[in-house]
Design a protein that fits this description.
Radius of gyration: 21 Å
CATH superfamily: Glycosidases
Strand content: 5-15%
Structural class: alpha/beta
Order of helices and strands: EHHHEHHEHHEHHEEHHHEEEHEHEEEH
CATH topology: TIM Barrel
Oligomer: single chain
Number of strands: 13
CATH class: Alpha Beta
Helix content: 25-40%
Strand order of the largest sheet: 1-2-3-4-5-7-10-11
Bound molecules: beta-D-fucopyranose
Distance between the termini: 35 Å
Shape: globular
Number of domains: 1
Length: about 475
């Protein structure tokens, strides 16, 4: 077993693990759950690798006691998971499904019994299909429906949930889902994606209000902000970088933390930027104070100018902004094809802190790596590359903390191997291996390493008993 030194985080720093409902639960048509856009998308031929769906996934819906036992053994302080909106409100609004409510009651109580603090994501991409049929996030009504669903969840679970995350990676919902079409609902639109981005933010603002009204303890959002580098100092690459900053980061950070829309949005999207979906009062709604901001980080992105879009006969998507993202040479890539550059994580956190004077405390809500795991004849998974990745990125967080960034905790992605969206089941991010034929769970070396890190952290930072 690899011996990789443990990065040192400050006293009180919290360690956790993260998952998402559609990626692990399965039971897609059980106990009254309605369909989501990911059911529809994954069941459409040609959309996911090998036609993979989340119908069964890790069968967490039935095996959650075993998964909570794995978390307990891991020694985490908290567990970040998402609620399935169509399990709670099968049509997105209106009738509430009591069996769906009961499931998360059981999960939350099981976690509390194990001494693990529940952290709930309200929206990890599984929009009820009934709402997509009425326009999905292109429509403001979906933001209102999200508030209704949030109120149901907050009322039911608010007494037991420590942290609430309104949205997970709205960048992916809006731009990967409605512009690139690589995620559900698989649309390729310019206006639709920009309207979706705005309505996601409005939905976030409305959800924050509901959570506050219900007396929620801590409220935040999880963003996949990106550390972007220009491929060269050529003026066209620097201009592409400017546009990519708007697309990846400022669409979210400016309204959330600076009370304005991005300064360079018109040069990024021309006339589409300031669409009729914006209403007066929206910035105040979106910018309501948060207790933390969650950051999901995996890899840095290099940006290069692409041939001018006006010559492109393809549909004008919001991502078609004259930007390409080549993979740099000379860095190790995970099986996702993502370069491993931990120093970019420190840079991202420090830069964000410097740029946003009103930034709330930071929580790392996702970080981890997909690797080519193999089961050796001893039945184990010796995933040294994943341990190196985690050690490097936790050390990068420790550096950001030392430089003055207020980072409170870290949730590793992911507890289990799971349904990796359009990439199906081939990408394995788990600390625990899942055999998809038998659904057997096997802790990998990285699981034992992370447990050792948590134990060492407590031993080093907790007051000795008198
Ligand atoms: C993030 C998602 C998460 C998982 C990781 C690998 O973008 O939030 O569900 O797929 O990537």
């Amino acid at each position: 077993m690899t011996t990789v030194p443990f990065p040192e985080l400050p006293r009180g720093f919290r360690f956790g693990a993260a998952t998402a409902a559609y990626q692990i639960e399965g039971a897609h048509d059980e106990d009254g759950r309605g369909p989501s856009i990911w059911d529809t998308y994954s069941h459409t031929p040609g959309r996911t690798l090998g036609g993979a769906t989340g119908d069964t996934a890790c069968d967490h819906y039935h095996r959650y006691p075993e998964d909570v036992a794995l978390l307990r053994e891991l020694g985490v302080d908290g567990y970040r998971f998402s609620l399935s909106w169509p399990r709670l409100l099968p049509q997105g609004t209106g009738a509430v499904n009591p069996k769906g409510l009961d499931f998360y009651d059981r999960l939350i109580d099981e976690l509390l019994d194990a001494g693990i603090a529940p952290a709930v994501t309200l929206y990890h991409w599984d929009l009820p299909q009934a709402l997509e049929d009425r326009g999905g996030w292109r429509e403001r009504d979906t933001a209102e429906a999200f508030a209704e669903y949030t109120a149901v969840a907050a009322e039911r679970y608010g007494d037991r949930v420590e942290r609430w995350i309104t949205l997970n990676e709205p960048f992916c919902s809006a731009f990967v889902g409605y512009a690139e079409g690589r995620h559900a609902p698989g649309a390729r639109e310019g206006r639709g994606a920009l309207a979706a981005a705005h309505h996601l933010l409005v939905g976030h603002g409305l959800a924050v209000r509901e959570l506050r009204a219900a007396g929620a303890r801590e409220v935040g959002i999880a963003l996949n902000l990106d550390r972007l580098h220009a491929a060269s100092g050529r003026p066209e690459d620097l201009a592409a970088l400017r546009r990519a900053e708007v697309l990846h980061n400022e669409v979210w950070t400016e309204p959330l933390f600076a009370g304005r829309y991005p300064e360079h949005e018109t040069e990024t999207w021309e006339g589409l930027a300031d669409g009729p979906w914006r209403r007066s009062g929206d910035l105040e709604l979106i910018g309501g104070a948060l207790d933390f901001v969650g950051i999901n980080f995996y890899r840095p992105i290099t940006v290069e100018a692409a041939p001018h879009r006006a010559d492109d006969p393809a549909p004008r998507t919001a991502t078609d902004i004259g930007v390409v993202e080549p993979i740099p040479y000379g860095t190790r890539l995970t099986t996702m094809g993502w370069p491993v550059v931990p120093s970019a994580f420190t840079e991202l956190l420090c830069d964000l802190n410097a740029r946003c004077p009103h930034l709330p405390p930071v929580w790392i809500t996702e970080n981890g790596s997909a690797e080519a795991d193999t089961v050796t004849p001893d039945g184990l998974v010796h995933d040294g590359d994943r341990i190196d990745y985690l050690a490097g990125h936790l050390a990068a967080v420790a550096e950001a903390v030392a430089a003055g960034v207020d980072v409170r905790g870290y949730d590793v992605w992911s507890l289990l191997d799971n349904f990796e969206w359009a990439r199906g089941y081939e990408q394995r991010f788990g600390l625990v291996r899942v055999d998809y034929d038998t659904l057997t769970r096997t802790p990998k070396d990285s699981y034992h390493w992370y447990r050792g890190l948590i134990t060492a952290h407590r031993a080093r930072t907790e007051e000795p008993a008198r």
